[in-house]
Design brief:
Distance between the termini: 30 Å
Shape: globular
Number of domains: 1
Largest sheet: none
Structural class: mainly alpha
Number of strands: 0
Number of helices: 3
Radius of gyration: 12 Å
Length: 77
C-alpha cells in the first residue's frame, strides 16, 4: 500500500508508532550520521491521509488504531 502512494515504508512505520498516545518516544537505529538524517526525514515525510485510511480499511492497521491523520502530535523538539 505504501508503494501505491509512493511513501517509504520506514516513514509509515515511524509515524504510525508515534501516533499512539501511549508512545512517548521512538529511538530508531542510527549507526551512522546519515541514518539520523534519514530518520528525521522519515518522521517529517508528508503521508497522505488516504494512505492511513487504506491501511485501516484494507489491511494491517486496526480500524480503531490511532494514526497520524487523526492525532497530529509528531514533533522533533
Amino acid at each position: 500500500m505504501c508503494a501505491r502512494y509512493n511513501v517509504p515504508l520506514k516513514a509509515t512505520a515511524l509515524q504510525f508508532v508515534l501516533a499512539h498516545p501511549a508512545v512517548t518516544s521512538v529511538i530508531p537505529g542510527s549507526s551512522y550520521p546519515e541514518h539520523v538524517h534519514d530518520n528525521v526525514a522519515m518522521i517529517r515525510y508528508d503521508i497522505p491521509a488516504d494512505l492511513w485510511g487504506d491501511l485501516q480499511h484494507e489491511g494491517p492497521i486496526d480500524e480503531n488504531a490511532p494514526v497520524p491523520a487523526q492525532h497530529s502530535r509528531l514533533s522533533l523538539s
